[in-house]
Amino acid sequence: MSTSLTGTRPLLHATLRHDGRRFAPWVAIATLLTASSVVVYPWVFPDVAARRLLAVAIDANPTLSLIFGPAHDLTTVDGFNAWRALALGGFLVALGAIHAVTRATRAQEDSGQADLLASGVLGRSARLLTGVALAVVGSLAAGVVAGVVAALCGGGWESSLLLGATFTASGWMFAGVAAVTAQVGSDARTASSLAVGTLGLLFALRGFCAALDAPAWTLWANPLGWTLQTRPASGDHWAPLLLAVALTGALVVVAFVLQARRDFGQGAIAPRPGPARGTARSTWHLAVRVNRAPGVTWAIAFVALGMVFGYFTTSITDVVASNAGVQQILASGATTPDELTAVFLRTVLSLVGIVATVPGVQVLLRVRSEELDDRVEPLLAGAVTRARYYASHVVLALTVVTVNVLVAGTLVALLASRAGIGVSFADALVQGIATVPAAWTVVALSVAVVGARPVASPAAWAGVLVSFMLTLLGPTFGLDDWVLGISPFWHVPLTTAATPDWSGSAWTTLVTAALVAVGFAGFRRRDLAR
Amino acid sequence: MSDAVIDVHGLSKSFGRFRALDGLDLQVERGQVHGFLGPNGAGKSTTIRVLLGLLRADAGTVRLLGGDPWAHVVALHRRLAYVPGDVSLWPGMTGGEAIDLLGALRGGLDERRRAELLDRFELDPTKRGRQYSKGNRQKVAIVAALASDVELLVLDEPTSGLDPLMESVFQEVIGEAKARGTTVLLSSHILAEVESLADRLSIIRDGRVVQSGTLADLRGRTRTTIHATLARTPDATTLATLGSARLDGDRLTATVDPTRVGDAMAALTPYGLTTLTVAPPSLESLFLRLYGDDEGPR
Fold it and tell me: Are A184 and A267 in contact (CB under 8 A)?
């Protein structure tokens, strides 16, 4: 073991210096998430009365607990911070850890950089250890910085640090997961898809179990549930984090064993000879071909998402019935149960729409990465206009979004219509279809960015992030309508209303068209691979 | 003029503050194999990317097959094929699939020639992109380009990574293309390849063509080297007629103008030649002079 780790120290040193800063955005965003909760909460919800109202609003919209987990105590700043930041912060740091490990291991083997390193005086396991160490250090930094900054901004020290520790624990566990998937998948894309898929699945399961008050063991069986069990600010249990540390250790050991058994540059599955002749003869076929594997994965994910959200929708009446605050609102006549259900359905389907923009944006970003990998040049040296090449990918991205929303929307509609909660199949499906134009707008932003300003490609994610934040968090912060209106999902009409107002959809479609036009004009004019 | 397949005048292209091309002129006649040479970073690939309409020229006129490479992309690209120097294949796609895709996007390829080229280059089309070595990736691009019937081949260091056996197959195949009347722009560092294939050469340095002409033209501008062993030591006046001559014991090294080799022989014969080599200017010495010279040729 000792010689197989030779050279880890200088390699880690160099990696921290050159790749360490790539972890900075994850540290920053996790810190921002928790610090902003601490700073903004006393300001927006100054007294206990206002906070109780918020608690009622959150309870009335179980979609929120699907993402954020249960709100144990919203009367204190720390309690609010724990509710708002724990799940998302851990998720983000885990994503950062997955990328750090994959980049330092599998991605290097793909690019050939690993050959260069491995030919030096470097033990067989040194690169994997370096990747894991980078993620471990990065996650630790995220936890410590987030905890200390939140405490300095006015949070309680213990609960803030515990919250930071849950970020670190999430990062560590998924560094372990990514270390294993890097041995299983035979290239970087597969490896990180496997790890991110695991993260997404566990995250959805945790939200589902927490929102439905499932038996406690369902949370203990889920590693991401452990961070929830620490309950910062409403119990402060540190012990569940030990489980996370143990799991991390176990996963890393498994990864080392797997790595020792595989060949350099190969995965667990040996590649077989492929077809000698090709069937992809156009840019459209190529776009489909290149995005096929992630497309299939996402389609499966949306079937699962549709099932989870569908079952979740059927429980709306139970959730509402058990909630005293909601009963009060209903009794006062401010809203009707049907209206409450309709709004709830719209939120659930908007969430589906927002998640569906992710594969759409990925298709567009793939255009950029193909370009940087010098694979677009030989294509455009053929008799292909740039507009046609780009259009193939744009159409594919919009199709992927549409299909995914419709798949999940149909399942939600099917399950909701059979539950006797006063929602018909057609109503729910139409609501799902009404969500599609909003999702297109988010994808159109990435069309504009990749087409016209490819250097700013990461900005393509801005649409997804802003939509998510505004749709889910905006209303609870009492933001003005014009701010909420930045998210295209705010304009999705309530289709079950007596006279649905479709003008919002018309406007977002107009914005979509403008953004797509900007993207095409840019892609036609700019230098390629620059 | 009407027969120029590539006609570039005063082409400039900058990336930020870096001036990659600075008033480049390049003419390639129909049916010619034109060698395009220059040190690393001189602007060869940038020129080719402008010719392919991938980069937009900042200044100058560029005509390719009688059209504007930026505006008439599709019409022009049906008539040309391109081999990049650094071939990047889709990791999960087999070589055969990539060849068919690239061929189809150009407007179809010649089935018979596709099969023949795969055979001659000993390329296995069933392997995936990520399994190929550098040389084999290069072969995929070469087969894809040469399997279609085109008027112009644009080759950017096409043989980097090929073994000598495959290198000679490549030279044969280009020779056949030339016999069919195909025009070839061949950017390369392998001087032997250029020497055996090219009719004309253009040498680029710092974004500008510094010399252009036939191989004989360019050779004519450098001097022939003479190595001789002499029985008797020649006197100073004889040595002076030889230009730059150096005597090391009985061994003489001199460089003379190629037109004056006969005069030099006549001057040296009386001194009893025992060994003699007369080396024509090699392409290599030409390049060493052009690449290495800070101010370039005058």
Answer: yes
If 0-12 CB within 10 Å is exposed, 13-18 middle and 19+ buried, where does residue A331 land? exposed
Residue A469 counted as domain residue: no
Contacts of B154 in chain A (CB under 8 A): 381
Strands B33-37 and B183-187: parallel
Task: Name the residue among A277, A279, A382 with its Cβ closest to that of B105.
Answer: A382
| Range of the structural domain that residue A222 is part of | 1-269
530 residues of chain A, pLDDT tens digit each: 456 777 788 888 888 888 888 888 899 989 988 998 888 888 778 888 888 877 877 776 677 777 888 888 888 889 989 998 999 999 999 999 999 999 888 888 877 777 777 777 777 788 899 999 999 999 999 999 999 999 999 889 999 999 999 999 999 999 999 999 999 887 787 888 889 889 988 998 888 888 777 888 888 999 999 998 999 988 889 999 999 999 999 999 999 999 888 877 776 666 678 888 888 888 999 999 888 888 888 888 888 888 888 887 877 777 666 666 667 767 776 677 778 788 888 888 999 999 999 999 999 999 998 998 889 988 998 888 999 999 999 999 999 999 999 999 999 999 888 877 778 899 899 999 999 999 999 999 999 999 999 888 888 888 998 998 888 777 666 778 888 889 999 999 988 877 888 888 999 999 999 999 999 999 998 888 77
In a domain, A215, yes or no: yes
| CB atoms A384 and B101 under 8 Å | no
Strands B208-214 and B224-230: unpaired
State whether A281 and B91 contact (CB < 8 Å).
no
CA distance A38 to A146: 11
Q: Is B263 helix (H, G, I), strand (E, B) or coil?
A: helix
Cβ separation of B128 and A274 shorter than 8 Å?
A: yes
Distance from C-alpha of A51 to C-alpha of A80, rounded to nearest angstrom: 9
Cβ neighbours of A281 in B, within 8 Å: 100-101, 104-105
Report how far Cα A168 is from the mean position of its chain's Cα atoms: 18
In this structure, is residue A219 part of a structural domain? Answer: yes
ipTM above 0.90, yes or no: no
* A contacts of B129 (beta carbons < 8 Å): none
**Count of residues for chain A?**
530
Q: Domain total for chain A?
A: 1
* CB–CB contact A377 B49 (8 Å): yes
Residue A520 lies in a domain: no
Q: Which residues of B are less than 8 Å from A296 in CB distance?
A: none
